[in-house]
Amino acid sequence: MPESREETLFVNSRHRVARRLVALGAALAVLATSACSPSTPEKPAESGQLTPDEAKAIALDAYVYGYSLVTVEMTRRVMTNVEKVDGPRAPMGQLMRMREYPDAQFRDVTAPNADTLYTNGFVDVKDEPWVLSLPDAHDRYYLFPMLDGYTNVFEVPGKRTTGTGPQTYAITGPGWKGTLPAGVTEYKSPTSTVWLLGRIYCTGTPEDYAAVHKMQDEISLVPLSSYGKPYTPPAGKIDPAIDMKTPVRDQVNNLSTEAYFDLMAALMKDNPPTEADRPIVDKMAKLGIVPGGKFDIDKLGSDIATALQSVPKEGVEKILARFKELDDINGWRFTTQTGQYGTDYL
């Protein structure tokens, strides 16, 4: 069974509510190869066919649908914007290995575990698969969830699911076909973006830290073309335009309507919706939000453009409203309906 929806989408450290904000599958992979094709996007309807209220209703649904996809992308940008592994960050295609429990100042994701050491990374499987090799964990509890671009957990190797012996997986992207080396198991991601969120149990003693560090160092991640060969990962490229100070959630929530939907549409090209998402995809197309397309709010007319300006604020409010539906138990709100979200976009 897949594990929890990951930490960036919790409301806060006291009120944690995992919400299914997008139906594509991850954030990080529920999209099957039968996903809606971005090569034939529907044309937006003429602005006269929608009233401002109708357009706004569609836009609010679209905002909720795309929230996890946009959040994963903004998280990826921040956590990979380094030349080399640096604390909790690592370039694309490389693993960061946290050597201690996160302290109270850790802000890259909210509500991190307090009894595991993280081994995380982002890969793009659009061009070729990536191979993750896990060593013998010697019966130690660990899990290595693999999230798609919408935070759906598409696979989660670990003690409870696959055991603690050595194991090797090739993470393949949408539509990939090929032959894998002997002993390598294929895990299909429905999106090109994949977020690896490994966690290894640790007691926190110096001796156990050393044992977990050894296990972390034995975990490898390489492109399929380099599997079984000496491999030195290339240095990452720093993008000075990426905001490394503002929390990811605030960066997402502060995006304008046009910036949000333009980014969302671009991401949907390589992180395609599933066939089950077609109803919302068809509705979004009426506003010109199509996979791989350019969103231009001005083409909708001034009345609709004005009506859509409040969508980010109201969209966030709609997402947070789900939190109020959960029972409050001793000041905590939590849901176990996590991991696979289907078309429950909240």
TrEMBL record:
Write down the Gene3D superfamilies for this protein, in alphabetical order: Domain of unknown function DUF1254, VPA0735-like domain
Domain of life here?
Bacteria
* Residue stretches making up the DUF1254 domain: 93-223
Q: What is the name attached to this protein's record?
A: DUF1254 domain-containing protein
UniProt lineage: Bacteria, Bacillati, Actinomycetota, Actinomycetes, Mycobacteriales
